[in-house]
Amino acid sequence: MDPNKIINRVKNHTPTILGIEHFSKSAVLIPLVQQNDEVHVLFEVRSQELRRQPGEICFPGGRIDEEDPSEQEAAIRETMEELRIRRTEISDVYPLDYMISPFEMIIYPYVGIIHNIDKIEPNPAEVEEVFVVPLTFFQQTKPQIHQVSIDVRPEDDFPFELIIGGENYNWRQRKMDEYFYIYEDKVIWGLTAKIMSHFVQMI
Hints:
Layout: H1 3-11, E1 24-35, E2 38-46, E3 57-58, E4 61-63, H2 71-83, E5 90-95, E6 99-101, E7 105-114, E8 127-134, H3 135-140, E9 144-150, E10 174-183, E11 186-189, H4 191-202
Parallel strand pairs: 1-7
Antiparallel strand pairs: 1-2, 1-4, 2-3, 2-8, 5-7, 6-7, 9-10, 10-11
């Protein structure tokens, strides 16, 4: 193959994450609300009827659809659907750093302001309840961080004979940090807590 053809194909390439086409992609919104002259963060408790993570605490958000013009619009759409509010009730939506989980998932977090909290009517199919936490709680409270080990287990038909070391190959064990915030009777943990910690560090 002509080297010039190779270079022409590569020079206009925009780098992205290798294998990203196989990742599931979600967008979430950290909703800031004004209450009693103080900024609060709004959280959802997921419906017990949901198949994935029922009853857990999260931010509004979900899977990015092909019809969504951008990750930002996906976060806004999901927030509107879950809290049943109008687009005009959401403003100043800006991105945080996106996250890549060990489970082939990319999360695009955003922060934004929700006006007129009294207009929120959680969608019972997805949201059991909503609650707010003063932002100062997160600014004054460090998250608990606990580690989870992720073991590498090759499938039964893995071709050990093709790698040096064979069945005795020294696989690297991965550890994952899990973040926890405990506010009154609520436990905010996992990716939600990690995103919240990142946001607090930013501000």
